[in-house]
Amino acid sequence: MVLDKDTAKKTAELLLQINAIKLKPENPFSWASGWKSPIYCDNRIILSYPIIRNYVREEMAKQVEALYGKPDVIAGVATGAIGIGMLVAEYLGLPFIYVRPEAKSHGRQNQIEGRLEENQSVVVIEDLISTGKSSLNAVDALKSSGANIKGMIAIFTYGFDVATENFKNKDIELHTLSDYVHLAELASETNYIKEEQLATLMEWRKKPSQWQQ
After folding, report:
1. Count of domains for the chain
2. Report field, pTM of the whole predicted structure over 0.70
3. What does the DSSP 8-state code read for residue 109?
């Protein structure tokens, strides 16, 4: 869920500006999952732009406080959200941890890196939501370690129905700075894409796993 339309449009504008999001309806990208997609998002690029990363950091921190007050800990989902999660935690003056996709096979075999005590309240920071499975895997790991998950805040979501269902089934609240609908609206309003390209973008989101150019 997007909390503020102006923030959603501004975030989408900045992501397009630095090519963190690329739109190519006529020459689709291939995702690791095998899906064909007219959009590609790599929010890690934000970290290379100080003004933009500060904007994202502050907007995410504002949402954390507005929604949850100050949790005990901020958790980033590895690897994409480690950088921005740490910046949010620093801005709020809170401890930071991050969660690996799975436990290491060596050393202390940690899946959660950093200090987390039982029953501490945690807000999870994510960079991008597609199906939500990797994000919710991190939530499961935190819960298994005794964390009290307040919610998750991400930079961007494609808004897939499967993701909505996955978060609902896990009873996890998700908020994002921006989303696919606001991105598509902005791209159309600013003539970044043509009207027929907008139709392609909206058609893809209905059934992304089955979409063909």
Report:
1. 1
2. yes
3. -
